[in-house]
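Quick bug: Crp/Fnr family transcriptional regulator output formatted oddly.
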Amino acid sequence: MNEFNTYLNNLDYSLIKDLCERKGKVRTYRKGDFFIRQHEKKRFAGWVEDGTFQYTHIDEEGEEHIVGYSFTNEYVCDYSSFMKGSLSWVSIQAITDCSVYEISSHDIIEYWETDMETQRLGRCVAENLYEMVYERLLDSYCSPEIRYKRLMERCPNLKEAVPLKNIASFLGVTPETVSHIRRKLRK
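Here's what came back:
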């Protein structure tokens, strides 16, 4: 579902995928297992061979918000915790059984420093992640209907992959609002 994580667009990630498969270790996560919990550190990323992860953030009032997903053939990690060793801002939890090739930040950084092409790839990953986060920030100023339309244009199969209440949480609205938007768009 590469259309969800737009940072994957326009880049050839096969080199990093190959590195994960070569140097990484296969790890199985059962539905409900955590890849990382909010406020923990994890210096590993993973290539999702199979399965789906959900990213959540618990705010100061204890409310949980869905902030992202990683699907089969995508990467899973909290980028700042992975690269800088800082505390994670999110929890990443398997919402299906998952098989992941995990690789350490040390191995990725060492790889990115091998030549100019891999340095460029590392820089492009960071730039694309920044662009995706910036787009998400600007989306927060749009109406719920526009946010829903953009999400469905980008990721038309999402409604089959995750429940309505999770899509609503991702959009920052109630499930009833999403149902209302869907009814309106069907007319």
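Actually, after a second look the formatting is fine. The two ends are 27 Å apart (CA to CA). Closing.
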